[in-house]
From TrEMBL:
<dbReference type="GO" id="GO:0052689">
    <property type="term" value="F:carboxylic ester hydrolase activity"/>
</dbReference>
<dbReference type="InterPro" id="IPR022742">
    <property type="entry name" value="Hydrolase_4"/>
</dbReference>
<protein>
    <submittedName>
        <fullName>Esterase/lipase</fullName>
    </submittedName>
</protein>
<comment type="similarity">
    <text>Belongs to the lipase/esterase LIP3/BchO family.</text>
</comment>
<keyword id="KW-0378">Hydrolase</keyword>
<dbReference type="Pfam" id="PF12146">
    <property type="entry name" value="Hydrolase_4"/>
</dbReference>
<dbReference type="InterPro" id="IPR050266">
    <property type="entry name" value="AB_hydrolase_sf"/>
</dbReference>
<feature type="domain" description="Serine aminopeptidase S33">
    <location>
        <begin position="18"/>
        <end position="248"/>
    </location>
</feature>
<dbReference type="InterPro" id="IPR029058">
    <property type="entry name" value="AB_hydrolase_fold"/>
</dbReference>
<dbReference type="GO" id="GO:0016020">
    <property type="term" value="C:membrane"/>
</dbReference>
<keyword id="KW-0719">Serine esterase</keyword>
Length: 263
């Protein structure tokens, strides 16, 4: 297995083909393992998913800043340091902003872009609405934090196995530490202006995947926004899904993604 160069944790699946490698970029306060369902499925090209500092209690090194611009630079460095070309970037939520800014930095390295419920000027996050709920201190508040992310959270939480997983995953420090606070505060209007400029510059094939009932991203507004700013856009709104689309309706999600990747 080849050596991977990166300052933070990463996921690597060696499928024996660097050309057209896929890199997954996680969302706010998340981790690369969250996209494991795709990692296990994909076999055609090498697959990577990288951790960004400040998220999931990860301490920054080398004076790395805690903002999406820094993540974009880390992503480009990851691509160049590991000799990857013709890369497909997949960005979920905040990761959508990361891949936009990375494309603007080095469009020559990117072959395709896949956006999964990406942050943008139309999101409640950019208006500060969702930001106020980012620091749950009790399990009940954590449920309220999770509810907008799922199509039918109340049904899910009624499942004892899911409920126990949520209980184990809850850690107030993960939401109240200084790193995630800095990152969240950096996601301001200036960032969304930069993302918009990056979207306007895209010339490669692009897929936008949205959920039917997303509590973070207004899917209809997001779709119209992307149609206005992104050329070569394909899109799908996945039924019976919210923000964590690939976990809620995997068959429809992967059918659209694989069709796009195979073109």
């Amino acid at each position: 297995m080849e050596k991977v160069i990166y300052d933070y944790e990463y996921v690597f699946k060696d499928n024996g083909n660097k050309d057209g490698a896929i890199i997954y970029c996680h969302g706010h306060n998340s981790k690369p393992e969250i996209f494991e369902i795709f990692q296990n499925y994909w076999t055609k090209t090498n697959y990577y998913a990288i951790q960004f500092p400040g998220n999931n209690l990860v301490k920054p090194v080398k004076d790395h800043k805690l903002n999406v611009n820094q993540f974009a630079h880390l992503l480009i460095d990851f691509i160049t340091n590991n000799g990857l070309k013709n890369v497909t970037l997949i960005g979920h939520s905040m990761g959508g902003g990361t891949i936009s800014l990375a494309y603007k930095l080095r469009p020559d390295l990117i072959g395709k872009l896949i956006y999964i419920a990406p942050i943008n000027k139309t999101t409640s996050l950019s208006k500060g609405k969702y930001k106020r709920n980012f620091v749950p201190t009790t399990l009940s508040e954590y449920h309220d934090f999770l509810r907008p992310l799922y199509y039918d959270f109340d049904k899910l939480i009624g499942n004892p196995e899911f409920s126990e997983e949520v209980k184990k995953a809850f850690d107030p420090e993960r939401f109240s530490n200084e790193y995630i606070k800095k990152l969240t505060m950096s996601m301001d209007a200036n960032l969304y202006d930069q993302i918009e400029s990056a979207l306007d510059s895209i010339k490669v094939p692009t897929l936008l995947v949205l959920g039917e009932k997303d509590g973070v991203i207004d899917s209809e507004l997001c779709l119209e926004y992307f149609k206005e700013h992104v050329k070569n856009l394909e899109s799908i709104i996945v039924p019976k899904s919210a923000h964590i689309i690939y976990l809620e309706n995997w068959p429809v999600f992967i059918e659209a993604v694989e069709k796009f990747l195979n073109k």
